[in-house]
Design the sequence.
């Protein structure tokens, strides 16, 4: 036996992991997990993880295709041709955009994977990327993991925002390589109209900056609003790509199907990276997704209506508890400014911890999405209307001390929990997946 070496064995992770920014949702996740373990019925409005089922006809197709042994082999990393063709057809049908399925569409393992690998395909050490603040965290993390640097610009959806970006493009050397856009926006639910994209394309051409549009909430729109696709803008395909997903519109988040469409060179760069890293989705998932894209328009519309109704309940309830809340016209979130009185001098991370601790309601602190998110919380529309009302009552009791709410308390070992007041709608958050750090901020 070798002996005499008392040096501790160490594992040194890569610089790319070390340069990740601090993970600001960690304390909230830990408390949420601890509360659940102690038997609390936490109403989780923290994450954009859809609770409603995927379309039944899509599940049926998945099951049928899974029984066919021909579908059990490795698939192709860019996605089946028929799937890419169906995406192109949908873009044409909904947005009037022409896409070549061979060169301008690639299937990704969720848009998050696609986005992250595109960063790896386009960025090298020292390259810079312009991102609005606040931002969906992967828009920052993926840049950092690819060795790039993020230039944060206070978020907006108007000319002033584009002027801020132009100022950076004009004055920074080396010039930023990419501009990340995300409308309807996570977390702020901000939206744009097509004029904004026309101005963006002009800016991109003038400064030779590539544009990446994250269109995850493109089909979750309310009150007749239709979010424009960046690719529908004249010149859009010359300067950029757009990510879309099955996760939100079709309630297929766990299936991990997304797409990157647009500029063929950018699509090729992403396809090249993916060709080295993966073999594509399980073919039955792709086959079922084809059917969803082909026959799911009505499902998508109805799902948006469900979110709209939850939005109405949440926005009016928050106003009643004293918050000045804007009513979003898209996305799965209400981005709510917390009243000064209720913040009571705390930052939103501590405020959200207090709400979780005292009201058993989980929300995402705005600070977790960037400095400019401070003062806001993001509340996801991922519980049914009854549960959202229950959450509002618990928040009211905690923050205004008005209503006395009966809630299930800590489970004492060997006993069962007392039934919760008005949980007839049933808790949806009884799963551990939610507590995994990777999904927070989603
Ligand atoms: C803006 C945005 N982009 C991308 C994603 C990830 O979606 P997907 O499930 O397609 O990876 C999310 C998920 O919450 C999101 O909010």
Sequence:
């Amino acid at each position: 036996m070798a002996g005499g070496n008392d040096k501790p064995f160490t594992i040194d992770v890569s610089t790319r992991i070390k340069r990740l920014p601090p993970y600001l949702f960690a304390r909230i996740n830990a408390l949420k997990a601890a509360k659940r373990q102690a038997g609390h019925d936490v109403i989780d409005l923290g994450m954009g993880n859809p609770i409603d089922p995927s379309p039944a006809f899509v599940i049926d197709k998945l099951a049928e295709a899974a029984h066919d042994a021909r579908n059990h082999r490795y698939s192709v990393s860019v996605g089946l041709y028929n799937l890419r063709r169906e995406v192109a057809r949908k873009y044409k049908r909904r947005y009037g955009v022409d896409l070549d399925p061979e060169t301008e569409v690639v299937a990704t393992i969720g848009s998050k994977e696609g986005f992250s690998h595109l960063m790896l395909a386009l960025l090298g050490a020292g390259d810079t990327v312009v991102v609005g603040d606040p931002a969906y965290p992967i828009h920052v993390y993926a840049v950092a993991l690819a060795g790039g640097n993020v230039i944060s610009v206070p978020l907006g959806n108007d000319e002033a925002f584009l002027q801020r970006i132009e100022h950076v493009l004009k004055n920074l050397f080396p010039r930023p390589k990419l501009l990340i856009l995300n409308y309807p926006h996570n977390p702020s639910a901000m939206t744009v109209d097509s004029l904004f994209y026309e101005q963006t394309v002009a800016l991109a051409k003038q400064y030779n900056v590539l544009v990446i549009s994250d269109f995850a909430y493109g089909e979750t729109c309310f009150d007749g609003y239709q979010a424009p696709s960046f690719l529908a803008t004249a010149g859009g395909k010359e300067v950029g790509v757009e990510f879309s997903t099955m996760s939100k519109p079709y309630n297929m988040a766990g299936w991990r199907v997304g797409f990157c469409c647009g500029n063929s060179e950018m699509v090729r760069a992403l396809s090249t990276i993916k060709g080295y890293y993966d073999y594509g989705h399980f073919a039955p998932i792709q086959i079922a997704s084809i059917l969803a894209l082909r026959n799911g328009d009505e499902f998508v519309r109805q799902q948006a209506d469900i979110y709209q109704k939850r939005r109405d309940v949440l926005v009016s309830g928050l106003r009643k508890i004293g918050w000045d809340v804007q009513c979003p016209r898209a996305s799965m979130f209400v981005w709510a400014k917390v009243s000064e009185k209720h913040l009571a001098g705390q930052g939103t991370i501590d405020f959200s911890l207090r709400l979780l601790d005292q009201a058993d309601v989980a929300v995402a602190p705005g600070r977790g999405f960037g400095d400019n998110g401070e003062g806001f919380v993001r509340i996801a529309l991922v519980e049914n209307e009854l549960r959202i009302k229950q959450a509002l009552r618990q928040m009211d009791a905690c923050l205004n001390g008005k209503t006395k709410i009966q809630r299930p308390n800590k489970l004492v070992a060997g006993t069962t929990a007392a039934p919760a007041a008005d949980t007839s709608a049933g808790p949806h958050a009884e799963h551990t997946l939610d507590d995994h750090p990777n999904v927070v901020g989603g």
User: Anything to note?
Assistant: The two ends are 50 Å apart (CA to CA). DSSP finds 15 helices and twelve strands in the chain.
